[in-house]
Amino acid sequence: MDYKTLLDNAKKNMRTCRVCPQCNGRACRGEIPGVGGKGNGLGFIRNYDKFRDIKINMDTIYNSEEIDTSIELFGIKFKYPVFAAPIGAVEINYSDLYTDYEYQKAIIEGCKNAGIVGFTGDGAKDEAYESPLKVIGKNSGLGVPTIKPWKKDEILRKIKLAEEAGAIAMAMDIDAAGLALLGMQGKPVAPKSAEELKEIISSTNTPFILKGIMTVEGAKKALESGAYGIVVSNHGGRVLDETPSTIEVLPQIAKAVKGKMKIFIDGGIRSGLDVFKSLALGADAVLIGRPYAVAVYGGAAEGVELYTNKIGRELHDTMLMSGAKSLDDINEKMITMCR
Predict the structure, then answer these.
(1) Which of 38, 148, 221, 235 is catalytic?
(2) 316 is in an annotated binding site
(3) Any catalytic annotation for residue 235?
(4) pTM score of the predicted model
(5) How far is CA 282 from CA 172, 274, 275, in A?
(6) Residue 64 domain-assigned?
(7) Looking at the 3D structure of the chain, how many domains does it have?
(8) Residue 339 placed within a domain
(9) What is the pLDDT of residues 215-266, one digit of tens each?
(10) Is 38 flagged in the annotation as binding?
């Protein structure tokens, strides 16, 4: 399978996603259920557009060495600093070709084959969270189950299930507090106080990541709560319209907490060049959402592996052309902000 075949298959198999040449949020704006951004869709669109304002400085005068794209997180070495973002309710938002279990199985197995790891989702139905744990357990714990901000007792129950599955890490997408669809399905979510988060995170020894941080203040509260890391994320523009883009707020957040906790980012990342830009502005690694859904619907686990290696090759080539021999070499001097 090649990438063009993957895209052609996805177009046939996806009900709502148009598999646009550029996944920028314009064609699907406001389509929820579906894959669009909330309201006018400007949060999703801005996430994508602001990456276009960042240019990469080319420099090929340096001592040539083998380029290392690997990263160590959770005590494990991964091939690339790229991870599949958690996506749930695929039958509602994408197509009924896959159940949530089948979708997450393709993500976990494809990511593992590519040398990275996938985050799995959660939903109003228990099986949306629990069934992927079976796949994680069968794959040496290589998955990051992601819990919605339910009531505390429900969160603690799901933490125990993730521990039993041997998950290498777990997360909570606290930005999902704005997902009205969950309330409509009889399973409301809500914001969490710093005190609640501290209690939740202290209940486990497994690394815990808070997804949905968009301010310095939020990052500091996450740090104080004991989180292993954060994901700078606005939930793909699906919970609040007209937010800043994630790449816009990343530098100030990184300045405040870099080195004290791990920093991930998602939102609008579409290439290895975007991965490079994210790392140059302070991220340790990235999460990618919608394109991984396209990869699943275009080629299941094989499509996930193919897409991951495509992004990895693009990152490798960008490092080659900018003088970065390892991820630690990537810095702000290697990019130019053009506004």
Answers:
(1) 235
(2) no
(3) yes
(4) 0.97
(5) 21, 13, 11
(6) no
(7) 1
(8) no
(9) 999 999 999 999 999 999 999 999 999 999 999 999 999 999 999 999 999 9
(10) no
